[in-house]
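Recap from last week: sequence in, structure out.
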Amino acid sequence: VAKMITSLAFLYGRAVDLNMLAGGFKNDLVALGDTTPHDERYERTTEYTLIVKQLLESSVGVTVEGRYYNVSNLKLTPPIPEELRPRVLISGSSDAGMAAAEAIGATGVRYPRHASEESDVAERFAVPVGIRIGILARDDADTAWKEAHERFPDERKGQLTHQLAMKVSDSQWHRQLSESGTAAKASTEGEDPYWLGPFENSHTFCPYLVGSYDVVANAVRQYIDVGFRTFILDIPPSEDELAHIGHVFERAAA
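Predicted structure tokens:
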């Protein structure tokens, strides 16, 4: 990992971000022969990440005798310039996740509740906190909601998949969003942009903000006001969609 980071920095003259642990489903891990409990997976990732960071930040050999990893006089050459060292992110919905974020100096990434339910993150956490969210905005709310329902229709199959995932997942973000879903459902009239429809139908795994540019920008602004500075977007389906999202952040920043 450290070599790939250095190679990309050398080839392109830019830094990359590292998302060290994003949460997942227990059955996927079992299929790979990994039965490590939830909190211990964060402890293992912490040890791993600290080795990667030491390789990137040190010009001398790295020696670690850990619980999960052992390295002896391991070196990375050539060293990476300080300004091209990566930002580190990690899933921060659980206490174990935020403890790992503090230990490795990472940004903890959460799946946000409704903006009205979020409070000052600087008071709650010792490290920066970001959110993962989808955005679908247009000039008017009706157009945005129409496209949202076309892209993410209600599907019985998806709802059953979601219910099954609830039973087998040990990810706290999945449970937190599922439990808050009923109270946070938005109308199709653009009054409230926060929408869990794509999540509840297993189309994607994050909340969406849907509506007019101004309404969605105001919601983004509310998240910024309580201290969120990093936004990881659900993958836009096209370059045009990314332009629409850009309009939202321009207005939120203004």
